[in-house]
Automatic annotation (TrEMBL):
Protein name: Thiamine-monophosphate kinase
The EC number(s) this enzyme carries: 2.7.4.16
Positions that bind Mg(2+) 4: D20, T31, D62
Organism placement in taxonomy: Bacteria, Pseudomonadati, Spirochaetota, Spirochaetia, Leptospirales
Cited InterPro entries: PurM-like_C_dom, PurM-like_C_sf, PurM-like_N, PurM-like_N_sf, ThiL-like
Keywords: ATP-binding, Kinase, Magnesium, Metal-binding, Nucleotide-binding, Thiamine biosynthesis, Transferase
Pathway assigned in UniProt: Cofactor biosynthesis; thiamine diphosphate biosynthesis; thiamine diphosphate from thiamine phosphate: step 1/1
Binding of Mg(2+) 2, residues: D33, D62
Other remarks in the entry: Reaction mechanism of ThiL seems to utilize a direct, inline transfer of the gamma-phosphate of ATP to TMP rather than a phosphorylated enzyme intermediate.
Chain positions recorded as ATP binding sites: G110, D111, R134, T200
GO terms, biological process: thiamine biosynthetic process; thiamine diphosphate biosynthetic process
Binding positions for Mg(2+) 5 per the UniProt entry: D201
Amino acid sequence: MKESEIIRTLFGTTPPPEDDCYFLAPNRLVTTDSLSEGTHFLHEWSSAPILARKLVEVNVSDITASGGRPKECFLNLGLSPLSRKKEWIRAFSKELRKSLDQYGMKLAGGDTFSASKTQLTLTVVGTVEKPWLRSGGKPGDYLYITGSLGKSQLGFRALKKKSKKNIYQDAITHHLSPKSRYVILKPLQNFQVHACMDITDGLIQDAERLAIPSKGKLKIQIESVPLDPLALTELGLDLCLGSGEELELLFLSPLVLPTKLAGIPVTMVGRLEKGKPGVHFLKAGKQYLPKSRGFLHFAEEE
Ligand SMILES: [Mg+2]
């Protein structure tokens, strides 16, 4: 089954929530994310500290995308023969505490169990004043992307090819240790943001997840999309547009924003218009159809 069908089946007749976080109360939000050995990481690529950091960052990214601040968290650990060793647990715990401290977060509970492969799940609760939903976009809004796209996919491919070339080091670090855009939250809150999400499955799929809830036609100018130059040369356009786990923010605002906030590039890449909800990529004024859609959680035929 496809991920969307699995989610539909789980929720039955209730429509599944569409935002990065669930709002427990008007000012309280929660999210959860997992890292599973073999699916999201390999122990030979990621040390215990790298995994601890990534687990915190992917969750903080969802909280940030909803306009919130992380506060408490719950950790569920499925430990394999490798990860239940003293050295692994100690290294993981030390870095986890460091990462949580950095965001002023408190470990409030969790669960540990034995597993054949390492399974890491973090649930983060946070506070929010003005929530950013995916459904808040209005016709005429400008579409923005923070940072650039493509590096995560380039890093993943370099790791897979076991490439030792120095030029890939930055992309490999970006893939293994992505950073949330939490530092942009405060400066961005000074401006009107109508809708926001983080890029985890690639721009092609994620842009649709903003356009459909906002009930508009999202036009994206390919020439404006900030792509990592090395990733573009090595992988080509479509793979960069589909690069997942970037943790960049994709958002809609009625304003023309500064091109940099908190030192992070903020690039205008398109506009939301009235019309059939969906995404249109434009290249040299003509419609452009990427050949692949990017990261899929489950193969289509399963
Ligand atoms: Mg997300």
